[in-house]
């Protein structure tokens, strides 16, 4: 028997829109004309529009189940970051022909849309190579830590109704995916259950008392861009769809979870991220104490959610599972270390 729903955003496939329709949307809603190609995405339908008159743009057809306040938050956050720190490499919002950041499209003649109204956004396309195509190393990890710290500083005073979205990818609420554990292979299930037991008995009460703000919450290997393959210089950070108000330390823990290297201590890469973040935006002692647990929580979310979703949406299988192997490896390698020892390792790393 399949487990219960994770919510409409993850249960329901993205809207059905092809490149031809996206081209019409770009032209009619945003006055952007050019060659269109599809981009990957978890919830929305995304397209690259190359306009020879005015550069490259991303057209995003919003998932129909997304709360309009959450959609608005993403545009507001991008504009907020640009105003607080113009040097941060984030996408810039393109205003629609109607004067707002979100346009609406209804085309009854298109059978794929069935007359349903779709919300559409557009923002600048950032050139670069996803970290996923590069070898992880200390300099790249440090640059990620600095980037996330700068982003958190820029978001610190943002307040918006959409920040309270109920998001499955919320590491400090990792216990919400416990119902997915039974679908895992035995070895992975044992590791996930051990992590959840520790989080429930030790970490859950601690994170509830930490300082909070709006965070990006998804600095994964596909959302942080570098200027070239194996070049640690960061050229951009994209995908603000998982923005929410959560413990501040969750942002750096999420970013650190994707910096585990194939050899050496499993937390050496995360330690480089954390050290650089702490130098720019100092973490409090009580926050440092839960970083390792929040890293593990992100691996648990990736392992459980992606396996379940891939079974439900086989057409998006490759994209959904792109980070699953690394998460499973992290859980396996960190399991023998133990949570107290992992926390001690990261605490020592910050002091270096």
Estimate nothing, just give the exact number of structural domains.
2
In whole angstroms, the N-to-C terminal distance is: 50 Å
- Overall structural class, as computed from helix and strand content, comes to alpha+beta
Query: In the CATH hierarchy, what is the superfamily of the largest domain?
Result: Aminoglycoside phosphotransferase (APH), C-terminal lobe
Strand and helix order: HHEEEHEEEHHEEEEHHHHHHH
Beta-strand content bin? 5-15%
Mean pLDDT: 90
CATH architecture of the largest domain: Alpha-Beta Complex
CATH topology of the largest domain: Aminoglycoside 3'-phosphotransferase, Chain: A, domain 2
The DSSP helix count reads 12
Oligomeric state as shown: single chain
Tell me, what's the shape? Answer: globular
Strand line-up across the major sheet: 1-2-3-5-4
Strand count, sense and barrel status of the largest sheet are: 5 strands, antiparallel
Outline the low-pLDDT stretches. Answer: none
Q: Assign a percent range to the helix content.
A: 40-55%
Radius of gyration: 20 Å
Number of strands: 10
By CATH reckoning, the class of the largest domain would read Alpha Beta
